Each structure stands twice: as C-alpha cells, then as structure tokens.
C-alpha cells in the first residue's frame, strides 16, 4: 500500500475532516426521498392505468382470457369468501345479541345483523379476502412471467400485454367482486340467523322480513356495488406490481407481498371515501 | 487493412441493399445507457432479405440489448431503427404490433409460456393473429411447424418437462408461426451440448434457405456464427469493431478481433 493510500485509509494528515450531515438535513433528505418515491410510484401507476384503459377499450377483445379470469378470480374465490362470510355472520350475531340485550333492544337484532353485514362487513371482508388470494396471485403470476421474459415474448408476438394480461384481470376483478360480496352477505346472514336461532327461536322468514323491513334500494345496492371499486383497486395494483417487477425470485416475492399490502391498504382508504360518497348521494 | 476490407465489404453490401430496395432491418447510430453504464455506443448495422448477420462479442457488450431494441422491447437513447424502411421510434403498441408480426424472436432462454403445452405455445400467435383459421387448420399448422424444427412428438408436454434444446426448438417454431420476414435469434445455441448446437445450426441454415428471411443472430459461439451467417459483426464496448465475412475477420489486424478469434 502506498503512503498516500495508507494515510487516506487511516485518516492521518487530513486537514479538513469530513463533516457529518446534521440530523435535520439527513431527515429532510430521507423525507424527500420517500416523497419522490411516492410520487414516482403514483406517476408510473397513472401511466400504467392509461395504457391498460387504452388497450382494454380497443379491439381485438380478449374474451377467452376474460372468461378464464372470471373463473379464476370468481369461482375459485367463492369457497373462501363463503367461509369468511359464515364466520363473520356468527361473530356479528354473538356480538349484536350481547350488546342489544344490554340496551333492551333485542327486537332490533335482525335489522342490526342485516345492515351491519350488507352495508359494512360483507363488502370489506370480501374485498380483503379477495385481495389476499387474487391480489397475491396476480402479482406473483405476472411478476414470474416478467422475470422469465414471458411478457416480452407476448409483446414480441405482436400481442398487447396490457390488453391480454392486465385489462382482462382487472375487468374480471371488477365484475366478480359484487357477485362475491352477495355470496358473502348471503352466507353471513344465514349463519348469523342460525347462531341466533340456536339460542332463541326465530324463523328464517321472520328474521328476513324483520331485517329487511323498510329497507330501500339505496341502503343495500350501493354498498354491494362499491366492491366493484375494490375489484378495480385489487386488479390494478396486482397487475401493476407484477408487470413492473425487476429482479429474480426476490422480485416475484416482493411483487406478491406489495400487491396484497398495497391492495388491502388502498381498499380500506377507498372505503372511507366510498362510504361518505354513498351517504351523501344515496341518503 | 483487414478492417478496411471489412468496411469496404460492408459498404458494398449496404450499396447492394440500397439497389435492391430498402434493408429489412437498418440500425443507425444506436446509443443506449442503463444508469451510468453505456451499453451501445453508436452501433450501425443493416440486414437485407436472405441474409444472416451474426453479432458476436463479449458478455455485456449489448448484443441482446441490440436485438431487444430492434423488436421494440427497449427504447434507444438516440439513433434509429427502421424495419422495411419504417422507423419504429414513437410508434404505439398496436402499430408496433403490425411491424412485429413480420418479425420472429427467439429468446435466449426460449421464454416459453409455462402455463401452456408445447403445442399451445406454438399455437399462441396463431390464435391471436390468424383468427380466420379453423381449430383443425391451426392444429395442422402447429404440427407442421413443430415438425419443421424436429419436434414431432411431445406436443402435449409442458415446457418444464422438455430439455433446453427442445425448448429452443419450440421457441423457434413459435417465432416462425406467423411466417416472419425477419428472424432475430438471441443465443440460439447457448447452454446446449455440441450435438444439439449443431442440430440447431443445421435447422437455422435449412430454414434460412427455405424461407429467405433476413436474420440477425446474437451468439458467443464462433463456430455456430461461421456456419449460419453470411456476415459477422463483432461488438466491443458498445461499438461494431469489425463487420465482414469470417475470412475478413481472420485477416483482421485489430487486437481485440485477433484475441476474440484466438479464444473462440
């Protein structure tokens, strides 16, 4: 090692020691980095969404792939949402019975169960369950295709990957989420009634007629159809994370994780806006 | 002197191309950087119908990037790519798709769709672009394409169940599905044993004779390049250091070319 090299390494004869950046400046630079990354991510998501929209509305339409995705996203998620719905029905039934008894409002049980399942719990639970299953699936599948150049091969075969892979999956999510939400609601109501009927005699007919008494279109349809927006979020984020993956197996894992985490997070945030929107517009 | 001969030959070739009409692929002064790493630094090449150009060079000299730019999977920083005289710069995906229908691309690792069978992979471009074909016609065409590359059997196997050489053959059949006028091959013999490599070389030569496509083959394999190409170009540090026939390369006084040939 030369003298110069040694002195440089050992820090000898350094007339002006290097100044460490202050805490505030390093915090500011970290915050700036996070903000830049955040804006860049949203910018890329915007560009991706535009590409998908352009590809999705222009022919040729990929009907066969759409049907395959409807089956993959809809039929194969059904057992999971049905099971989640069944559990939610029992939980709400137990909680509601206890709470309503305390206030002497047992007669409100059917309406409480119906409204809390259809307006709140059914849609959000459906969204979160589908986000876990489908979001991760889409993210991992597309990321794996990306790192093994299969998406490039699709593009090289003169096929628009935004149309074939992204538009079909996103549309399938949008179409299937409301149907899955209906299945979750139905199952939750059924198990909720059953849990109640085990304790106190209540016919299913009576439960339904009391629960839906005075119900209007605006009370039930908008909460069910808002799950189409959840579908858009789950599909869009899954496809975006998958198709913009870089790196090998690590990239695939990251894409799957991010698809679920970001999908679920944005779904809950979107629910805040959607609930307010429904309250303002439909009531 | 040799490089002058090679350059003269290349110029002569380009002049002939111009006489015939436009080149099938013409690349002009391509530059491409990834971050601070300069991959291509002013590459210019052209290939015309019935001609095979082999692009050689060390790993990381931008050979595969060059092919990806030609088919529009990457965008160059500067420079132009013309396919049959039409510049591909700024084309939207659908217009680019029309141009890509005239091109076949064999990926280095074949990039077969792992959820489709061997036959499904070859049928894939036909299902999307030859919608007028009946199911039976498509099936016959798939069998014919696979027979052309020596894959008469195992049509229903998944890509993961066949060897690397077979995957390359299937990839080649898929690249040929739309009867391309331009064929781009990225390392067609990489990772294969000498016998399989020889078979792939023979296959490319035969297809070339039968179909008269304009082909660009990126390879490390000098023996393969010598067998299948009319012209060879060697890339170093993102630039073409020599272009010409194998004999031109042998006579070259350029240090890098001499070393490359010696170690090949």
What does this structure look like?
The complex is a heterodimer of chains A (283) and B (264). Chain A is an all-alpha fold. Chain A has one domain. Chain A has eleven helices and no strands. Chain A has helices at 3-10, 23-57, 63-73, 78-102, 109-147, 150-156, 161-199, 204-211, 217-225, 227-243, 249-282. In chain A, helix 5 runs parallel beside helix 10 and helix 5 (109-147) packs antiparallel against helix 11. Mean pLDDT of chain A is 88; it is low at 1-12. In chain B, strand 1 and strand 2 (37-47) form a beta hairpin. Chain B has helices spanning 2-20, 63-70, 93-100, 118-129, 135-148, 164-176, 194-211, 222-228, 246-250, 255-263, and strands at residues 25-34, 37-47, 52-57, 78-83, 86-87, 103-106, 182-186, 214-218, 231-236, 239-244. Chain B contains ten helices and ten strands. Mean pLDDT of chain B is 86; it is low at 1-19. Chain B has a single domain (2-102, 180-263), classed as Rossmann fold. Chain B is an alpha/beta fold and 264 residues long. In chain B, the strands form two sheets. Chain B has a six-stranded mixed sheet with strand order 6-7-8-3-9-10, sandwiched between helices. In chain B, helix 4 (118-129) runs parallel beside helix 6 (164-176). The longest helix of chain B is centred in the first third of the chain and has 19 residues, at 2-20. At the A-B interface, helix 6 of A face helix 3 and helix 4 of B.
């Amino acid at each position: 090692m030369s003298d110069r090299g040694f002195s440089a390494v050992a820090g000898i004869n350094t007339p002006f020691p290097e100044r460490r950046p202050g805490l505030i400046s390093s915090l500011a630079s970290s915050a700036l980095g996070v903000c830049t990354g955040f804006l860049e991510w949203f910018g890329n998501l915007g560009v991706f969404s535009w590409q998908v929209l352009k590809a999705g509305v222009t022919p040729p339409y990929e009907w066969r792939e759409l049907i395959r995705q409807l089956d993959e996203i809809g039929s194969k998620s059904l057992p999971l949402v049905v099971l989640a719905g069944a559990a939610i029905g029992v939980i709400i039934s137990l909680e509601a019975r206890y709470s309503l008894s305390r206030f002497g409002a047992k007669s409100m049980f059917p309406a409480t169960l119906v409204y809390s399942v259809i307006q709140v719990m059914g849609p959000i639970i459906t969204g979160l369950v589908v986000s876990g299953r489908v979001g991760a699936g889409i993210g991992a599948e597309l990321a794996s295709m990306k790192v093994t150049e299969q998406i490039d091969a699709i593009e090289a075969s003169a096929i628009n990957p935004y149309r074939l892979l992204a538009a079909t999956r996103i549309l399938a999510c949008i179409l299937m989420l409301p149907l899955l939400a209906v299945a979750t609601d139905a199952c939750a109501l059924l198990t909720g009634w059953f849990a109640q009927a085990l304790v106190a005699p209540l016919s299913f007919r009576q439960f339904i007629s009391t629960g839906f008494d005075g119900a209007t279109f605006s009370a039930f349809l908008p909460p069910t159809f808002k799950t189409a927006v959840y579908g858009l979020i789950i599909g869009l984020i899954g496809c975006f994370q998958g198709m913009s993956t870089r790196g090998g197996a690590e990239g695939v894992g990251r894409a799957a994780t991010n698809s679920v985490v970001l999908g679920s997070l944005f779904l809950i945030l979107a629910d805040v806006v959607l609930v307010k929107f429904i309250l303002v517009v439909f009531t | 002197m040799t490089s002058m001969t090679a350059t003269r030959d290349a110029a002569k070739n380009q002049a002939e191309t111009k006489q015939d009409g436009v080149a099938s692929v013409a690349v002009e002064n391509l530059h491409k950087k990834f971050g601070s790493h300069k991959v291509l630094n002013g590459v210019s090449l052209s290939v015309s119908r019935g001609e095979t150009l082999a692009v050689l060079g060390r790993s990381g000299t931008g050979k595969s990037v060059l092919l990806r730019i030609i088919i529009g999977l990457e965008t160059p920083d500067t420079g132009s790519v013309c396919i049959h005289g039409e510049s591909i710069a700024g084309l939207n995906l659908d217009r680019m798709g029309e141009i890509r229908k005239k091109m076949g691309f064999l990926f280095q690792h074949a990039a077969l769709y792992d959820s489709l069978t061997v036959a499904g992979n070859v049928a894939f471009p036909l299902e999307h672009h030859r919608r007028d074909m009946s199911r039976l016609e498509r099936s016959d065409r798939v069998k014919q394409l696979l027979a052309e590359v020596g894959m008469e059997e195992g049509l229903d196997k998944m890509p993961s169940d066949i060897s690397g050489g077979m995957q390359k053959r299937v990839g080649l059949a898929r690249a040929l599905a739309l009867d391309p006028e331009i064929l781009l091959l990225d390392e067609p013999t990489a990772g294969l044993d000498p016998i399989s490599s020889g078979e792939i070389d023979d296959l490319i030569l035969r297809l070339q004779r039968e179909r008269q496509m304009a082909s660009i083959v990126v390879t490390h394999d000098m023996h393969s390049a010598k067998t299948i190409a009319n012209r060879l170009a060697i890339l170093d540090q993102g630039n073409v250091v020599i272009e010409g026939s194998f004999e031109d390369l042998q006579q070259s006084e350029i240090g890098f070319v001499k070393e490359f040939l010696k170690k090949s």
